[in-house]
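Pinned message: reference record for Mitochondrial uncoupling protein 4
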Amino acid sequence: MSTPEDEERLSPLAQRWPRASKFLLSGCAATVAELATFPLDLTKTRLQIQGEAALVRLGDGARESAPYRGMVRTALGIVQEEGFLKLWQGVTPAIYRHIVYSGGRMVTYEHLREVVFGKSEDKHYPLWKSVIGGMMAGVVGQFLANPTDLVKVQMQMEGKRKLEGKPLRFRGVHHAFAKILAEGGVRGLWAGWVPNIQRAALVNMGDLTTYDTVKHYLVLNTPLEDNIMTHGLSSLCSGLVASILGTPADVIKSRIMNQPRDKQGRGLLYKSSTDCLIQAVQGEGFMSLYKGFLPSWLRMTPWSLVFWLTYEKIREMSGVSPF
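Predicted structure (tokens):
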């Protein structure tokens, strides 16, 4: 006769360590989505950095020499001037970031939904709880992943620095981590964390909240079942809402993380995310906050689609209940 200890040892890993399993599964799904859509993220970051009015104060060529270009011309320019594979420049820290970020946010959201807030007896989860849960999950996941996000943003700009005749800052991912740590200390690895978690809170309010709400609405109120069709429709909605809510904070985040710093790790262009916001609007207009919106939306939608379809499928294959 088997003992409870034997049954626990023979049970699937997903049942023995549910949170760790969900963390790993979400990291795997995020890796697939990141590899598939990373060129759009690189294009978006280049567009967001272009034309910074704050560069005038540093005398860094007044405004940068590169002309404003749209999404397609920016992507083609990267291929022609730097090479096709440079569309994936910075993908390694991006994958590191998404393993930590996606794992942290998914585990946090489900813990809040199942344990802290709880669903009603009819499986209904109120929208206000989902909004709070999505924002808190984004804050936790992004704070943990901020060092990898910082490296990703700075490495995405290396090809552009080379074309402008500026010296490259990093030889690789690990050198980037080491250099940032040496110049700014541990605090330097969390440069830009405030706008980062602000963006993550907004993006996850759009992504997690929209996906969870739309999916369960479709399952409970329409003939659709919990299948790939429902997952696809829900992810398309979540990608659009996340892009609309998150793009302004993403612009501020990218600029703060990419700005030059002094030996104490303090930024030379912006004092805070609020200062960056004010300078951007005053110097470039309100719509500068939506620079890179098209590639952001075109990236967020397929990223969300690939992530959620992959995540739901590998949960099913691993014996974990649907999201």
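Pinned by admin. Summary line: Residues 192-289 form one domain.
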